């Protein structure tokens, strides 16, 4: 047995990450999965699982101390952390002293905060010489209107999204003069007249911080990366093509990802987003210091990034993860039985 990798609660990819590590290592790497809820669908892909204690029940509960004790008792060698990762990062030296390689997206909490604050992130990346979309934060109606005017003055279209969010929720592209009724007649597009948006915003009872950005017309790329304290170890670029995705390695998108990873000392399994401008040049959009929901997709093309991350954390040779040429993949949802939930219905009558 080569080692034990612990995956604590992630947003969307925990099941896939566990399955790909186990499958890719032929069972040589054991996976421990934990979650705040009894998620049988996630636990069934791990070798061992546990439900994490809840702070609401135990107000004085110290997550980092519990994690250190659990890692010791379970003989964990590496931990891919998402839940309470700032608490875990604060105990990074203690994990290291216990022989546990912690991978939490970054080596310090300030970097996680920087990547979560898109306007501050933009300033930092521009200062580092990395091409990044112009971004302005807005906390009220006046700031929102001013930000739209400022971005529009750069000669590009304007878009907006929540300062904090996932899955593209709340993203809108501003199209002046667009008929507002199109919001109810189109399935995709997320386009809206800016004045209609501003009027709706003004009527909102409460509002959260928004990010106003340049809208880039080119293709969007999602670069899933394995990094080791600022060094890019393995990666795969995914670009959507209608109902399919093109997966490849190398290219200008990766050059940007490598520069960001080095600048911020990113660490673990993370995701970089770029989009091409009108001239086809990739521009940095954002960095997610966590595994993306689609981090497992590229494994179908031959690049198993969760396995590469596990090997890196165990001090093993990752090996060649490059692709000779692009590969087209298509995602198909799977349906599976939950054995424990099914067994619990033994006394149930329809």
From TrEMBL:
One Pfam family it belongs to: ATPgrasp_Ter
Keywords: ATP-binding, Ligase, Nucleotide-binding
Record keyword Amino-acid biosynthesis present: no
Domain annotation ATP-grasp: ranges: 122-314
InterPro entries: ATP-dep_AA_Ligase, ATP-grasp, ATP-grasp_fam, ATP_grasp_subdomain_1
Entry coiled-coil feature ranges: none
Species in which this protein is naturally found: Sinorhizobium kostiense
Protein origin, superkingdom: Bacteria
Protein's name in the database: ATP-grasp domain-containing protein
């Amino acid at each position: 047995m080569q080692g034990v990798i612990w995956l604590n609660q992630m947003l969307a990819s925990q099941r896939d990450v566990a399955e790909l590590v186990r499958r890719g290592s032929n069972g040589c790497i054991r996976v421990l999965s934990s979650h705040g809820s009894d998620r049988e669908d996630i636990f069934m892909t791990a070798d061992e699982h546990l439900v994490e204690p809840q702070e609401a029940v135990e107000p004085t509960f110290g997550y980092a101390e519990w994690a250190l004790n659990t890692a010791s008792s379970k003989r964990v060698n590496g931990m891919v952390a998402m839940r309470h990762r700032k608490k875990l990062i604060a105990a990074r030296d203690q994990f290291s002293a216990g022989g546990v390689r912690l991978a939490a997206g970054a080596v310090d909490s300030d970097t996680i905060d920087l990547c979560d604050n898109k306007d501050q992130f933009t300033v930092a990346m521009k200062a580092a010489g990395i091409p990044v979309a112009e971004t302005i934060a807005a906390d009220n109606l006046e700031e929102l209107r001013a930000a739209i005017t400022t971005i529009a003055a750069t000669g590009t279209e304007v878009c907006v999204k929540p300062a904090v969010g996932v899955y593209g929720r709340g993203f809108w592209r501003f199209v002046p003069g667009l008929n507002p009724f199109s919001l109810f007649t189109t399935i995709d597009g997320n386009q809206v007249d800016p004045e209609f948006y501003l009027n709706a915003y003004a009527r909102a009872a409460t509002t959260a911080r928004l990010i106003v950005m340049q809208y880039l017309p080119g293709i969007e790329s999602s670069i899933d990366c394995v990094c080791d304290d600022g060094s890019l170890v393995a990666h795969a670029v995914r670009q959507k093509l209608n109902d399919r995705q093109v997966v490849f390695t190398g290219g200008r998108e990766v050059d940007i990802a490598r520069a960001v990873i080095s600048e911020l000392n990113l660490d673990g399994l993370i995701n970089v987003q770029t989009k091409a401008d009108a001239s086809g040049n990739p521009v940095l959009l954002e960095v997610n210091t966590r595994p993306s929901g689609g981090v497992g997709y590229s494994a179908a093309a031959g690049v198993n990034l969760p396995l590469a991350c596990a090997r890196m954390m165990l001090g093993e040779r990752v090996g060649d993860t490059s692709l000779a040429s692009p590969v087209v993949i298509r995602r198909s949802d799977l349906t599976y039985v939950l054995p424990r939930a099914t067994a619990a219905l033994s006394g149930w009558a329809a």
